[in-house]
Design a protein that fits this description.
By secondary structure, the protein is of the alpha+beta class. Helix content is 71%, strand content 9%. Among the domains are: 135 residues; 64 residues, Sandwich (Immunoglobulin-like). The protein is rod-shaped and about 195 Å long.
Length: 473
């Protein structure tokens, strides 16, 4: 710092002052001894010489003493003020001739003083002061001029020139905070200039992201770089708009290609950038329609796959899901109707298979035969219906055919079949009955009646029943 330099300069000057004062005291001491010696000398015997001091000589001596004292005072001012200022501007480093001239003039000043030529010493001291003031003024001018040029060249990113001038300034004042700060900024130029050139090229190519990244690096090196923050702010806005437009464009393109997942991704990315743009609402509407269409198509495809597997329960499930998004879709509506119809047929078949012996009744058989007519049309679409229709048809035949039933007794018991008719008193008789459950009753005078429950399966070709009343009353 400049204060430290001034302190050191004052210390050097103080040492010189001590040596000068010591020399002056020695001279005064010698003069005092001379005066004492002369005063003790007896001049009374020399009549030709009068011990009278001229008033003129006393006046001269008084003036000389004043000049001497004035010199010492000016010398002190010089040493306290000008000499530290001179030391602070390092004149020896940038003006060798002036440094030599100052040194020679200072020697003459001290020589004149030592010889007692106080007036000449004073005049030379005045010349020295004027010269130093001139040098200091010149130093300040050189310092400011080079500092200004360095700052100007820095703004133009001219490293060599800026570095040359800042070094000249620091030659005058190596501790100047302003110059040191400027030097620090100049030393960043070799790192900044390539980045700035690349950023300029990126700008010419309209590569906004590349320019933004490069300027971010510039800002990390030189946070106060003029114009960079404003440009970055502008680029951020442009990049934001550019990215938004790119996502919107890609989203519409993906919708045309029916690529719902990609379109959804671009929609979400665009929404993160700016959720208020009108284009986003338009894209969202088309995206929802596309996703609904895709869901419907997927459900139809899954339903058709279920139909191929003859799984009408799953087919109905998928058609129902599709109907939520597209109730007006004819394919969905028709598929849902057909699946429901086929499931009803299958349920009807199940009910008949659950209790097939009901088919022996005429009214039930008639309904089953109507079901077979309905199933004939549906059988083209369902192997399960075809198979079950055949099974039902076989059941109708089997449950309505007559099976030979052999009844044996003791030729004493009277036999009848409930809801069918009388058999009579027999030892053995063959009758024809349809498959199903029957109650055979035997009666005999003096004996308890007997009931025999018989179930005739539809898949048997003959059946036998034995009944005798042999328990007396």
């Amino acid at each position: 710092m400049i204060e430290e330099k001034l302190k050191k300069a004052r210390q050097r000057i103080g040492k010189r002052r001590i040596r000068l004062v010591s020399a002056l005291l020695a001279a005064i001491f010698l003069c005092s001894l001379l005066v004492i010696g002369l005063s003790s000398y007896d001049f009374s015997n020399k009549k030709s010489v009068q011990a009278v001091v001229s008033p003129k000589k006393i006046l001269v001596k008084s003036d000389k003493e004043k000049i001497r004292e004035n010199f010492i005072e000016k010398l002190q001012e010089y040493e306290n003020e000008l000499e530290p200022r001179l030391a602070a501007v390092n004149v020896e480093l940038w003006n060798q001739n002036a440094f030599i001239e100052i040194d020679e003039l200072k020697k003459r000043v001290m020589s004149s003083f030592t010889n007692g030529d106080y007036q000449i010493a004073t005049e030379n001291l005045l010349l020295l002061q004027n010269l130093i003031k001139k040098i200091i003024k010149e130093a300040n001018h050189i310092f400011e001029e080079n500092l200004e040029k360095a700052a100007s060249l820095l703004t133009e990113d001219l490293y060599n020139g800026a570095n040359l001038h800042i070094k000249k300034s620091l030659l005058i004042d190596p501790q100047s905070p302003e110059a040191l700060g400027l030097q620090l900024e100049i030393e960043k130029l070799p790192y900044l200039i390539p980045l700035l050139n690349d950023a300029k090229a990126a700008r010419a190519e309209n590569d906004l992201q590349k320019e933004y990244d490069l300027l971010q690096q510039v800002l990390s090196i030189a946070p106060d770089r003029k114009g960079v923050k404003d440009r970055l702010k502008m680029l951020a806005g442009l990049i934001k708009t550019q990215n938004f437009d790119a996502h919107i464009s890609s989203g519409f393109s993906d919708i045309e290609k029916r690529q719902g997942k990609k379109a959804r991704y671009h929609y979400q990315e665009a929404k993160k950038i700016d959720s208020r743009r009108e284009e986003l609402s338009i894209l969202a509407g088309q995206l929802l329609e596309l996703e609904k269409s895709i869901r419907v198509q997927q459900a139809i495809n899954q339903a058709e796959q279920a139909i191929q597997r003859d799984d009408w329960q799953q087919a109905k499930k998928h058609f129902t899901r599709a109907a939520k998004d597209a109730p007006e879709n004819k394919t969905v509506a028709e598929g849902l109707r057909r699946a429901g119809y086929f499931l009803e047929l299958l349920e009807d078949f199940r009910q008949y298979f659950k209790n097939p012996y009901r088919l022996a009744h005429a009214d039930i058989r008639s309904k089953a035969e109507k079901l077979l007519v309905q199933a004939e049309k549906a059988s083209n679409y369902s192997f399960a219906i075809t198979r079950q229709a055949k099974e039902l048809s076989d059941l109708i035949i089997k449950t309505n055919r007559f099976i030979p039933v052999t009844i044996t007794s003791d030729n004493k018991t009277y036999i009848l079949v409930h809801r069918v008719g009388k058999v009579g008193v027999i030892s053995q008789k063959n009758i024809q009955l349809k498959p199903g459950s029957y109650t055979f009753e035997g009666a005999r005078n003096g004996f308890k009646s007997k009931l025999v429950q018989a179930f005739i399966p539809y898949d048997q070709n003959n059946f036998s029943v034995h009944i005798i009343c042999d328990e007396p009353i």
